[in-house]
Amino acid sequence: MNVRTIKFFFGEALISLRQNLVMTIIAILTISVTLVMLALFVLLFMNTNTALGNVSRNLAVVAYLDKEISKSAIDQVQDQLTSISGIKSSDFVSKEEAWSRLKSKFKYQEDIVSLVAGNPLPNSFVIHIDRVENIESVIRELKLVKGIDLVRYGQDVVAKIRKFVHLFNIIAFSVVGFLLLATFLITINTINLTILSKKNEVQIMKLVGATNSFIKWSFIVEGFIIGSLGALIAMGIATSLFHVINTRIQVAFPFIGVFTQGTSLVSLNLAMLSLGLFIGVAGSFLSIKNLLKSMIKK
C-alpha cells in the first residue's frame, strides 16, 4: 500500500465522518468516557491492591504457646514455623517480655496492672504473613503445631478487606464491561450509517474494478480515526484528573501513598490508546462484515 493510497483512504474516511458528524461525535465521546472510566477503575484497583499489600506486610498472627512448654519444645515450634508456606517471618516473645510491654502500655493505669497477681501471659510467636490470601491456610497449619495453644489475628479486619476488594472488583469489571459493549455497539452503528450512506458510491467503485479489500479499507480507516480520537481525548482527561486528584490527596493526606509512578501512568495511557484503536477498528470490521455482504459480490 503506497502513500497515495493511504492518503486517499484517510481523505475518504474524513469526508464520511463529516457527513455523519453527530454519530461520529457520539462514538468518539463514548469511547472517551469508556476509557476514562476504565483508567479510573484501573488506578483504583492498583491503589486498593497496594493498600491490601500494605495490610499484608503489617498483618501479624499471634500464636500463644502452652503455659508449661519447655525451652526445647519452643525450639521445635520455631523449627516447624519455618516449614509452613505463607509465613514471611516469626519473632519469639517471651512471657516476661510480653508482660513488660503490657505494663509499659498501661503505665498511666498502674492500679489496673497491680490488680493482676503474677504474670498471666504465655510465651508466644508473632508471625508475619507474606500475603493476606494465605492467612487461612497458615492458620490451619498453625493449629496443627504441637505446643501452640491458641492462635489469634484480626479476622474481622481481614474478612472486611477481602470482601471489599472482591465486591469492588465485581463492580469495576461489570461497569467497564457494560461500557465496552455499549462503545462497540455505537461504533458499529456509526460505521453502519456511513456504509449505507455510501451504498451507491460502493456499487460504482465495484463497477470500475475496485476490489473488496480496497473498499473495506476505507471503512476500517474510519474506525481507526474514531478510536484514536476517542483514546487521545480519554488520555488527556484521565491524566488531568489523576494529577488534580493526586495533588489534592497529597495536600490533605500526605501520609497516604498514591499511585504516582510516571512510567506506570505512561503505560496506562498507551494501554488506553491501544484499546481505543482496537474498539474502533474491530467495530468497523464487524460492521463491514455484516453489511457489505448485500452490497458487494463475494
Keyword list:
alpha+beta, 8% strand, 4 strands, elongated
Distance between the termini: 22 Å
Q: Quote the beta fraction.
A: 5-15%
Strand order of the largest sheet: 2-3-1-4
Shape category: elongated
Main sheet attributes: strand count, strand direction, barrel closure: 4 strands, antiparallel
Cα Rg: 31 Å
Task: Provide structural commentary.
With 298 residues, this protein is an alpha+beta fold. It is 72% helix and 8% strand. The protein has helices at residues 3-19, 21-58, 71-82, 95-105, 110-114, 135-143, 155-197, 199-207, 212-252, 262-291; strands at residues 60-65, 87-93, 124-129, 148-152.
Secondary-structure topology with pairs:
Blueprint: H1 3-19, H2 21-58, E1 60-65, H3 71-82, E2 87-93, H4 95-105, H5 110-114, E3 124-129, H6 135-143, E4 148-152, H7 155-197, H8 199-207, H9 212-252, H10 262-291
Antiparallel strand pairs: 1-3, 1-4, 2-3
Helix pairs in contact: 1-9, 2-7, 2-9, 2-10, 7-9, 7-10, 9-10
In short:
The chain is an alpha+beta fold and 298 residues long.
